[in-house]
Amino acid sequence: MTNQPLLLPKAEPKEVSAATTLIPYSRSDDRAKYLGYLCCGFSDEEALYVLGLNRTWLADARLDSKFTDLEERIPELRKDLSREYTELDFYRNFRMILEKDHRVLRKALGMELEWDAEAEEMVPAEMTSFDQQYLLRLRSAYSPQQLQLLEVISASSDGGFNFAKWVQVNQDVIQISRTDTISLRRGQDGKKTSNS
What we know:
Blueprint: H1 14-20, H2 30-39, H3 44-51, H4 55-61, H5 65-72, H6 74-108, E1 113-116, E2 121-124, H7 129-141, H8 144-155, H9 163-169, E3 183-186, E4 192-195
Helix pairs in contact: 1-2, 2-3, 6-7
């Protein structure tokens, strides 16, 4: 397996796509796309511009009471979507991190092959210094505590993952660190005072 870049499909932004799932129109319907852009914070003018639509289209769409009802509920839909967007980004980024981990581990085990022109054959790919440093950090990410965290996240299907509740229940698993900054300055009488 060669080290190929991840290619993303050329389509509408994932935020708009996610927003259209809450809207009762077909995803290919301009009304769903328009409302999806509004849910993502676009103004009506911006949404019309991106979609190549005009005010006449909007006036016609507003003749539909279901459409106007949804348009009026955009602030409520945005609130519902904020959690969904956060989860989407978390899982998307997490999956890409797992893919990077997988590639580095395969290379470390000699499972990644590359063409050696001199030997005229496929040989195990050599690890770069970055790969080696990454591998050292990677080891700490695969612990029983990390597995427990993943199990909790993936099991939280009812209402989404609640981090605050998880910390409260699993205080033995989580480690929290804190950094304080203390500034010292001389007071008017020449003595040091502290501000924290």
